[in-house]
Records
---
Amino acid sequence: VVMKRQMVASIIATAFLSLFPGCMDENEEEKNDSLPDVNFHYLFEVMFQSQRAKIQCFLHYFERLAALSNGVEGEVTFRRVVVNKEELLSADQLAASEQALSAFVVPDEGVIEDAGSRVLQVDFANRYLGGGVLYTGNVQEEIRFSICPELVASMLFMECMDPNEAIIISGFEQYSRYQGYGGSLCYDGDCIDSSERDKQGNILTAICAIDAVPFTDTKGSYITQYEQIHYMRDINKAYAGFLQPYLDPDKVRAIASGNWGCGMFGGDAQLKALLQWISASAASCPALIYYKFDNELVKDLAEVADSIVKAKWTVGKLFQVVVK
């Protein structure tokens, strides 16, 4: 779906005023349970610090639009990527793979949105796109949707993702800065987005929304992430997001990611880093840029990756060692 950014602004304004029908009526027969509620009414119900920060971001977005004499220019593209189930990676296929590993880069500091326009930036998504951005959610996906409000328009029509699906959104702009994370989230003023634009004026920033398997209940599910059914599911989920079949093969982007599924979803950051490296390599991405976010579990990740590269491991070798 390709939308003029002016149309996207109209969707967000309508949602802000909670005017979309059906979403608020739990008895509505036509309510689509595979779609999140895009109306903002729940966002206003509880005024935690992080709630105020998100509302400030959206209000600032409207202030910026109001200051434009000719409206906002350009388009936003929303794309669902589906990998046919028979084309998903298998454990046997990965174990036998002689494919070279993608480059692995670990910046000393920074966040995913710093990666720039020529990089596909990972959204640590909920299977319902946007997660709790319009509720009390206040972590990576919710923050990104708040500082880049045009992403919220996707919640109107992008249904929840299946395990073999990812969602790519491009052409959106960052309007606000932030500080903190989780409950400490604060609005930090205006952001002038310096992203590159094409000849038509479209912003070249793109995100890849992929949802990890959650391991957060109280029944010991954390340990189950080391079972093949779960790590293969996450490898294929990331593979769907990183594959980029719609791009010229000569222009496949590097991936900017981090501790995907390791916060509220309870994932093992060391495991998730290696699974994403396997997926990016299998998808023939030139590089995986991994932001550590001060996570102690991956403090030595750069050294580990460097040792693996120097040893000239293949995708198959890395996968075999992870499995072992």
---
Amino acid sequence: MTRIITFIALLIVSMLSAQNKLSNFEEAVTLFNQNETAQAKVLFQNEVKKETENWLPYYYLSLMNATQALENRNDLVKMKAFLEAAQKNQDKINKMQPENAEVLLTQALINTGWIVFDPFEFGQRYSLDVEYIFQKATQLAPNNPRVVLQKTMYNMGKAQYFGQDTSEYCKELEHAIELFATFKPESKWHPSWGLPIAQSKIKQCKN
């Protein structure tokens, strides 16, 4: 009888512990989706210490750091630090999920960050890599709206850099928005971001 009670007690403790881990991760994803980057980072950093086999916390950390790098393009010291932090987490998920389109996209974003950081040093080195990544991601997940969106934004940025017309990419933005309407992530914790970015970019096409 004592053994049965002990087993039940351990089972309950295990279930409560798992639920707590889940709620912490869920809170981190919620904060990310609310653009509460600083708080989300803290929770995700705690998660990677506990759940080393779960690729999603590493993914979100990589994505947030890469995004912050581009947001700090006028401060090269900060930008470099964010890019290095992003790659540190990216190295983990590259090994864990090498054929995952979402993971490929974060690597493309980091590489794009290095191109922006120093076009003369990194432009030639990373531009072909980025284009190859987009090609592979498109093959793996052609109906993923983030694949279409990020590829289009990269091409628009490159066109702007060289003083070229970007209007030809507006249809691709529209296509991305259409894909967001039907895209179903694997779970509520998997990547679902991007629609507001696409909607903001499409407004530029109409102005």
---
Amino acid sequence: MERQQLNLDVIRQAGTLNQMKGGLLPEKVLQFGEGNFLRGFVDWMIHRMNMQGLFHGSVVAVQPTPRGKVVPVLNAQDGLYTVVLRGIDKGNVVDSREVISCISRGINPYTEWEKVLRAAANPDIQLVFSNTTEAGLEYQYEEYDPATSPRSFPGKLTACLYHRFKTFQGAPEAGWSIIPCELVDNNGEVLQERVLQIAGDWHLPGEFTDWVKHSNRFCNTLVDRIVTGFPKDNPDQFWSELGYRDDLITVGEPYHLFAIEADPAVQEIVPFHKAGLQVYWSDVTPFRELKVRILNGAHTMMAVVGHLHGKKTVLEVMETPELAAFIKKAINEEILPCIDLEDEVKKSFAQSVLERFQNPFNRHYLLDISLNSVSKFKARVMPTLSRFMASFGSVPFAIAYSLASLFVFYKPDRMEADHLIGKAGGEEYPIRDHEETLRFMQRAWQQSGDVSGAVKMILANGTLWGENLNQFAGLTDQVSEHVSDILQSGARLTGTS
């Protein structure tokens, strides 16, 4: 206990020095999410601005789900944690450590909702950031109780906006700049639509919806940085190197990119670009096409395929010749032909992605990437599948194999608490997704008499995919064949060279 306290004193000292350099930091950001990505991306950027005297503000981090475990640790460490950036940047090895001091506190809204509302009423709060995965922006109907936190992120945001609207009597200047980081096309527009939809569900006054539309800015964005999070394999090594114990070490790569569609007023509020950060205030479409289709699409495919092949990390996949060939085939032969950009641009980005996948420092766990894989596949891979089949009239091998692997990955061995347990190679693993998705997958595998029936039932679910995938000629048969092969003979790849 004494050693932990001593180590915490060291990290507090480092954080205090940072805060002294930036001065006292008023709370300017309400952040929905306190996970690895936001702490290693947005909060790291805010900290960089503070250190250069460009922002002079701190972050209130709101726990997004009832099962969150970060907030108690974050508060115990006075909001301080270490970001470790490791990788290759322009041919140079980067291995840096920095204590981040921009988070003032974390709040569990399910036990301290009144604190969230007080933050929402703070006139200094000008910005909202979020990262709740693609599924986090999906519409969920829920009742409104002013004294209790809504379960969904859009519900929480709507309740906070309404509280702010009432507090400031609808003053236009009280509106927020809202910058979501979820990997959803037009994420700002989608989030505004969800807020207005929920406001309708709750029968909130028309004056409020007008204020939401005209006094708040919902910015479309695209984010790009691989953040692997806490080094759970070797924390003692990091603690020894740092000289203190930090239970929220966040490991990521040096590369980062943030594209934001916002007017000059937002740029003045949060001047990322003045801090030398790779932030682009422009149309996010070309950045999204490259990043979501290539980096995120390949990650989503890799997670389930690699896991079924007994691999634990992205690096292990890339060090396995047949799996590396599979990923390269997916990117070069199936994804790139379906992106409308100059060949030089997209090939250059694809090459950088493959280099990032081979970062020797990163332990990016496939099971972490597999969280909410169904909605990720829909957002990241389905557009490529649709376009490939429309353009070439054939089923893309790598995408069909990864879809089959997804179905096998979601095949439950049993239900446990709020997730399913699967089994591959004799080892159990958690299948984590929204309850409705997990229940459906469980029904599909239990009720169907054979593999073909299960595949057809899953492909037919328009709620999961946005359409009935059985309509794609040849897809059902090819996916069924791959699923049967994986279940009968184990995961093994052919046809990837």
---
Amino acid sequence: MEVEGILNSAAESYPMNGGDGPHSYTNNSAPQRRLIEASKELIIEAIEEKLEIDSSSCVNGSKAFGIADLGCSVGNNTFIAVHNIIEAVEKKKAKKNDESNSSSLLEFQVFFNDHSNNDFNSLFRSLPYNDSSRSYYAAAVAGSFYGRLFPNSTLHFVNCSFALHWMSKLPKQILDRNSSAWNGNRIHYTSSSNAKVHEAYADEYKNGMKCFLKARAQEIVGGGLMLIVVPAIPTNSNDMSQIPQAFSYGLLESSFSEMVNLGYISEEKVETFNVPHYFPTSKELEAIIKRNGNFSIEIMEILSRKMKFIKSSVEIVVGTMRAAMEELFRQHFGNEVLPHLFQSYTKKVEENLDILDLKFSQHEDLFLILKRKIN
């Protein structure tokens, strides 16, 4: 069995909150939606200039144009992302038709991917079914994107936005009391002064990305494109404690400590919990991609610099975190502690909103367009 197959079966899964309730991802993903909207012009530019739409290796007129949204979750964000991609491809195709006096059309096959316990029912209930608003065939593909999901050379455009900071699994060392990388009662490497913890996270992230890129290199046709958007460490700072997520995790640590003191959870429960998120630098990502060797980096930009910052609110900060991480907390600590946790965390966000707001105004999200090399 290949490495990525092993990793795929062992990948940990913490789906976003499903449904359309007050704590759902559907109703608490506005920041992600703003980034998708901000990326539209860059996607149009990339498809216009980089996609080899008429090469026999990409689109030969006899098969559908394959699009995959990896880590699609639930809600309208994935549909907006897919619409932007298809609109750009159709625009490029129409231009090519005009230049060649052709009238050929493309059919689109879109694959919505996430873990098997993602709320695909809600996703497909909200799928646009009107012919005028959905010009593609839709299918769900369940499984970890850290392993193979599709047959060889079947995808022409892959979108993976706001998902690759979720690691396939945590490094074992950070949970081992006898290891120099044991993270104790801290819940993330950004809140630890121990460099070994960060090193363990970084190594595990590289292993996961190695499998991710190897799988995509087999699935994407030569000349096809992959879009990656991932929160990152700012380029002008190596201080991981300065990113907004680090401050937010610090507030969570304080809430967990409070709950231990009140007897809601044991100290051991906190010591065996860590957030499976990693935030790379642009240099780290570039090195990982070059080491793979199957993709060229066509575009790498700081997407958040293209956006006008909107002041945060307690509701947005808490709602976004809860929608994305509630299942992670539930699986480790149990359902009964969640009301106490979010009550404590909300209070701490209220007390520190100005600091969080400043840090979020300085955050960076990397936008990358990778092109599959033609062998």
